[in-house]
Amino acid sequence: MVPIYQFPIERSTQRRLRPNPTLGEFPKGEAYLRFASEPPNLYIGITQFERITVKLDVLAIAAHPDDIELSCGGTIIKLAKQGRKVGIVDLTEGELGTRGTREIRAKEALNAARILGVSVRENLGIPDGNIENTVENRARLIRSIRRHKPEVLLLPFHTDRHPDHVNAHTLCREAWFFSGIDKMETHDNDIKQAAHRPRNYYSYMQWFEFVPSFIVDVSDEYEQRLNAVKAFKSQFHDPSSTEKETVLSTPEFLELIRTRLEYYGDRIGKKYGEPFFSPSYVPVVDLYSLDL
Ligand SMILES: [Zn+2]
Hints:
- The protein is globular, with a radius of gyration of 19 Å.
- Helices cover 31% and strands 16% of the residues.
- It is an alpha/beta fold and 292 residues long.
- It starts with a strand and ends in a 15-residue tail after the last strand.
- The protein has 7 helices and 11 strands.
- Zinc ion binds next to loops.
């Protein structure tokens, strides 16, 4: 069975949708978004008939479903609460994960997306464990960036324990750059896309640590963030699970995440914080407004 992704969308987008014969009519104010696991149907967030375009402020890109929730879920929630439109692109379906299945991960990703408050979540269907910086994969990601025209990207850091995270960083960085090149042509629904380069990108922290360029206060978002992580039930601690235990599924793992958030929160005088790395300096417009 094909998992169905469902998000509230804007009225203007809804009018563009046609009923899907396999799903029936679209309920008012909502669109059913198809999860397609095999190329060329590459996307979560795209119907078979018409692709859904949401203009985003921030797009978070990750190697695996649950990477965003673990590393910068609080920041995503905070942005959404501040009225920003945020989206997620998962490069792979996380099918190499020891626990759960491709389909279970997809449903969990949908539930987590709802909790985070994002407007769209796509999956590029690149094989898990084999994220390569190829012409084809760059084109897939450039297509997503140009479709949603975010101003800011959130990416993995350039070095990490999992090779997919490292390769995802390179793929994301190059897609960010080439998205802005007119002569790098991509098409969406057979329509040539306009060039668009987000003004900057920031890396979130996964396994390896770095000296942050800035830390986002996520004290008020912590509980919601934890719920988004727990939406990936198959991956994390579940006393009733009969599946093989992994590092991620021990009760200590969630505690580890909390401890790190507490540490970086403490560094900025807050309860919880999420660290980011910026490849360029972050300008300060109003020094007096810095909350130190
Ligand atoms: Zn990952």
